[in-house]
Amino acid sequence: MAVVAYRGFAGVRLEADVVGAEDDPAVLLLHGAGQTRAVWSSVADALEKAGRRVIALDLRGHGGSEWPDDGRYDFETMVEDLRAVLAQLGSRPMVVASTLGGWIAVAALDRDAALLASGLVLIDTPVNFDAQVMRRVGERMREPASPAPGQAQWDARLFDAFDADSIAARLQGAAPRIALPALYARGAMSELVSTADAAAFVGQLPDGELVEVADASLVVTEDRIDALNGHLIDFLERRAPRGSPEYRAGSDARTFRDALGCFATGVTVVTAMCPDGTPIGLTANSFTSVSLDPPLLLVCIAKGAGSAPYLRGADRFAVNVLQIGQQPTSNRFAGKDEDRFAATPWEVGEFGTPVLSGSLSSFECAREAVHDGGDHFILVGRVLKAIFEPRRDPLLYFRGKYRKLHFA
């Protein structure tokens, strides 16, 4: 086991125990209030044996993590701590969290979830975000059990910073935005969460599951840990398997497409004019430079696309590289909207091609060559003019979803 330090919000030092091989799928464990990462020791051991790399983190003000001098323990700061740690990991982990840690995880993953994590498991986490309910939970948190020597340690100022109203407001409506495989685990005898509340919460998750551990009120306890481990490992094996999907010639084409999707790309809209002066265009992410001298680029166009015959025959075409604010444009030109140009700012470029206004860059090209490429054709263009906007960020596409740059 290694002890690793991460930088949280405003540089606060956050300490974690890390076990497991570096190349194994990662699982990040977050404890509740009045606990430390030690509460996960049995879970971490089981997950390591199941082939996972486990990071058990101490929240700020708990255990070996920094207890900041300014006593800053507001909820949003702890949420930003988690987002900072997730950004520092080498891969997107499955986040497993209980009680306070669960609230932090829900808030941290209600935006950019797919960029930060591969899934979410909530355990013993109250999911009725009514302010009155949250206040009752906060009152219970202010009276934590006395720490045994050498075990749980936490800063008492944590409980003074607990603001039920702001936490409830922050979490309200978050569940539908967590677009990740998710599991909610509750003790069948739980006083914190009713079956109805748990089912209602899971029903709001885009991809949620609910399990109950029999004869338990709290799941993260030594006498019920084996049952928890069983549910957790089953979920991980189904939703975040260790083995890599494999494609071989003649097998499922979807697997091949998913493998290609592991290459992150920009997004372009390829445009041209029909002989009658009507603009046409479509979204494409198979785009690359070919040569600097002469200046050549290529795009791959699906033969079945409605615009394909016009693009194949056009003497001039343009490639418009989209910026982060042009996701609606990408969707519009990928669909069958007949008014795609009516809804998109554009102008006729110097060489007679439709140029989309506000793009990250636009290349006006003369057709250099056309090559067959299976169900696509490869359109090679000689660049006549290129313009670009250095202050914008690109719209990215990775594993079937739009992405944005993360600046470390």
From TrEMBL:
Listed transmembrane segments: none
Domain Flavin reductase like: 260-404
SMART domains xrefs: Flavin_Reduct
Superkingdom, taxonomy of origin: Bacteria
Any one GO MF annotation of this record: hydrolase activity
Pfam families per UniProt: Abhydrolase_1, Flavin_Reduct
Gene3D superfamilies given in the database record: alpha/beta hydrolase (3.40.50.1820), Electron Transport, Fmn-binding Protein, Chain A (2.30.110.10)
Record keywords: Hydrolase, Oxidoreductase
InterPro entries: AB_hydrolase_1 (IPR000073), AB_hydrolase_fold (IPR029058), Flavin_Rdtase-like_dom (IPR002563), NADH-dep_flavin_reductase (IPR050268), Split_barrel_FMN-bd (IPR012349)
Protein name: Alpha/beta fold hydrolase
